[in-house]
Amino acid sequence: MVMKYLSTLSVIAPAFLSMAGMCGSVANAQESAVILVHKHYKETSSTYGVAEYDSNKNITVLLDVYNAGDAAAYDLQVEDLSFSEGIFNLVEGPTKTSWPELKPGANVRHSFVVSAGTPGTHATAAAAATYRDTEDAEDTEVVLSTVPIPVTVLSTTERAMSAFAKLLAYASLGMLPTFEAWARFLVTTGGLAATIFAVTGAVKLKERHDSNRRERLLKELTKGKGK
Fold it and tell me: Where are the beta strands (DSSP E) in 103-222?
């Protein structure tokens, strides 16, 4: 009986030990840093999902970093290489920074300033963050930030056109928010107006023709009675 009990225990014990090890591993895996990075702009004039800026105006780029995990992140670094030279010019602050540690539930912010140069619509990429889960970890974790809306750099003429487009959008109660919408509306209404004008002209021409015909017939009848 004792031998049978020991035999059964020898089979069950390793299974329990294995399960305990797995639970411990899961618990350890759950205790980790979760880094989230939100990239956005401070001065944003957003029109129809696009951030508009005048040429040479400064743009403050904000990188908000959060640790949503239950363990600290170590050697945290954030870098943004998405602002190409020539299109944007670095005005103030580095595009890369670091923190030795970010505790669970904590958040930090990094900012730098660029100026809008080349007119046009420019999509910027995500910033990248790297960190280590433990102080002595050899591997680093990499996460990407959110991607903000595209940046549109406006020339003086384009700024005036943009202001006029907003006026048109306001005048149309938001039903025609863009130049393209107004162009389609004008083409459609222009075609409709041309059709109405052509039909109206044809009707008036027929009425004039019928009127002249009646007058001629009336004159001929009058002459016939006179004879």
Answer: 107-116, 120-122, 128-132, 141-144, 151-154
CB burial string 24-55: b at 16+ within 10 A, e below = eeeeeeeeebebebebbbeebeeeeeebbbee
Q: What is the mean pLDDT of residues 26-46?
A: 76
- 98: closest CA among 138, 132, 68? 132
pTM, full prediction:
0.58
pLDDT of residue 6: 40
Tell me the sheet residues that pair with 41: 61
CA distance 148 to 126: 8
Q: Which two tokens stand for residue 127?
A: 């910033």
| DSSP-assigned beta bridge partners for residue 85 | 88
Q: Is there a contact between 76 and 131 (Cβ–Cβ < 8 Å)? A: yes
Q: What is the DSSP pairing of strand 151-154 with strand 50-54?
A: parallel
For residue 54, give the H/E element and its range: strand 50-54
